[in-house]
Amino acid sequence: MRDRRSGYGECPNEEGCPVEYTLDVIGGKWKGLLLYHMIDGPIRFNEFRRICPTITQRMLTLQLRELEEDGIVNREVYPQVPPKVEYSLSEFGSTLVPIIMEMKTWGEKHKKLSSFASR
User: Fold this and answer.
1) Which tens digit of pLDDT belongs to each residue from 20-53?
2) Which of 34, 38, 93, 108 has the most crowded CB, counting CB atoms within 10 A?
């Protein structure tokens, strides 16, 4: 795991707050979405660019690197021209699938009720 600078909230058992830890690993605007699209199998970098056209190349690279550093994602480089790079969920990353799918279900159920949906 990466060395987290922000630390975790105060928890009575002196461990890092598990919810904050989880959100640090998969939180943010893009990580959950990237993980969701890897559930069915490996995805190439440019496929992510098509799926998420508003993410910048720099941000996509940063998010994928963080997921790789955290052991959530595997990055495979194929020795060919032009280079081919695929990202897939690691075995550890696959443990997040139920969480990601619950987030999808919750979003489908509550999307219409949110003031965010009307923006």
Assistant:
1) 888 888 888 899 999 999 999 999 999 999 999 9
2) 38
